[in-house]
UniProtKB/TrEMBL annotation:
The chain crosses the membrane at residues 7-28, 210-230, 237-255, 293-314, 334-358, 431-456, 477-501, 579-600, 621-641. Keywords: Antiport, Cell membrane, Glycoprotein, Membrane, Transmembrane, Transmembrane helix, Transport. One of its GO terms (cellular component) is plasma membrane. This is Choline transporter-like protein. Belongs to the CTL (choline transporter-like) family. It catalyses: choline(out) + n H(+)(in) = choline(in) + n H(+)(out). GO terms for molecular function: antiporter activity. The keyword RNA-binding does not apply. Choline/H+ antiporter. It holds the Pfam family Choline_transpo. It comes from the Eukaryota. It is found in: Cell membrane. It comes from Nipponia nippon.
Amino acid sequence: RHCTDVICCVIFIVVILGYIALGIVAWVHGDPRKVIHPTDSYGQFCGQKDTLNENKTILFYFNILKCASPVVLINLQCPTTQLCVSKCPDRFATYIDVQASYRYKPDQWNYFKQFCKPGFNNPRKSVAQVLRDEDCPSMIIPSRPFLKRCFPDFSTKNGVLTVANQTTFKDGRGKTRNVTDLREAANGINNVLDARSVGMKIFEDYAISWYWILIGLFIAMVVSLLFLVLLRFTAGVLFWIFIFGVIGIIGYGIWHCYWEYDHLKGIPGSDLTVYDIGFQTDFRVYLQLRQTWLAFMVILCVVEVIIILMLIFLRNRIRIAIALLKEGSRAIGYIMSTLFYPIVTFILIAICISYWAVTAVFLATSGEPVYKVMADQTLCKYANLTCDPETFNTTNVTKLCPGAQCTFAFYGGESLYHKYIFIFQLANAFVFLWLVNFAIALGQCTLAGAFASYYWASRKPADIPLWPLFSSFGRAIRYHTGSLAFGALILAIVQLIRVILEYLDHKLKGTQNCFTRFLLCCLKCCFWCLERFLKFINRNAYIMIAIYGKNFCTSAREAFFLLMRNVVRVAVLDKVTDFLLFLGKILVAGGVGVLAFFFFTQRIPVFAQEAPTLNYYWVPLLTVIIGSYLVAHGFFSVYAMCVDTLFLCFCEDLERNDGSTAKPYFMSASLHRILGKKELSPKKA
């Protein structure tokens, strides 16, 4: 063994160090409080300690009617003044009414002014000037805090939309408006608020059923292990039962089509052709024609004949595939530690995701507050231009654009660092993809090395090395980091291009340029196919690296041509393996899911008293089903890697050895018997 793809290894290490440096720089310049806390129109955080807003944790909108939906309120900037308040309004009130009665009802003014700009306490100022300068909101509406923002307190009474049990309100400009004017915002907000109520109930269900969920996942793990062990004895039986079941079902379909064809004989109109009746929206019309059933019968006969011929001509290859599946089960039985290696891959990927997410947040929150003019773009030429909130009211913008506001837009800056924030985000995403693919590659190479040591052992299990999984992991890290990084780099580049294409497609969805959309669709399809192909090549290249210790390009080339020389065996093994593993996943998830259903619905008398009382029994049920499927997928991914490794070793064994005393085969006795004496005889020079 020697180090492979050293240059790529050095580049990979340098990139990791640069990635760490990028995270440090982002941490220095970024401020995640900008995401956690809402920001008012002055760029100040609501609820920030040691500031005037320390006790004002909620964001209040002066005129929520200007906001289209909750999505706009949360993610974008609503074109109205936004203020940090300690609590949301709990009553209807307008500035006109409060100003008219402030002398003899000072309590109303004291309550209303807490929603005005800080320091404003001049109820004698004319209403027109107050609304022009937006010193105070024209109205306040009963609201409740959600996501640290004040949303109108919507409710439905007898099917009628209301706010605090009222259907109308004064808009503060002399008009009485209906609550339905807020419908666009209400439709989204009600759903979100209902979701919050459902979310609390779901949280309660998890709190009282979490240990039963863990028990269900443990049962799924045990069943997955048993399935892998039993594949050694049942792989062939399961496959042939399925194949003959399909043949039987198609045979029944042929008989049923013939019966329908014969039954329609003599019925008026049944001898018409499809061409005679033309296109019909009711497809049941076609079922009244003999021609339809004749066509179905011919198609099913063709499919039946194809399946039978494939079984006849591919029977030996199918037997080899089943033997390899059994051999894979036997290999895992000798190297049980491989079943738990996916936990290592999961931890590595979780670290990558966490670092990428934190870095992305800090990069996104880098910079100083940037303010822009919020106004009607069709009427104001200054709309979306940067402005200074301190001097905005002294400029001509307010005169030329009535109602324009200088509000906080986003965080940015003019320094070199801030100008290249987008490039840094792109680099963050690219390195993230590279690291994730490297973690997956490391797992595949480690498992391949462990299973290859099993195959090439002359006497199994006596000649299997001690701690094969740890030895394989050490070899992969020590000698082949560069090769694994090289394969991961190629895949990461293609995935980044796919991400960019998805972004462009999202941005161009509203365009009417059919050619552009068609071109993007073709590019997305091509790069999806390329990514699938590269994953296949990389997977087999890592197996060859684990076996022979060569560099990535050499291993990929040798693996590709080896597979092409055995392309029929590859196709058969791939489909047989996919079917059996899919069957196993469905069996595990479905079996544990049925058991969980009967338990959580208290239909098992023995455990009826133990089952928790839930708001929604489907919450833990779905968690158990999805979790069981993922657990089974984790175990079976190891099994799939085992079968792929043994297959490549098997193909190499056939090409390098001839079964003679000088060059004996390393394959198992069952594979010897399937290949037969002719293939095992010594090759002639």
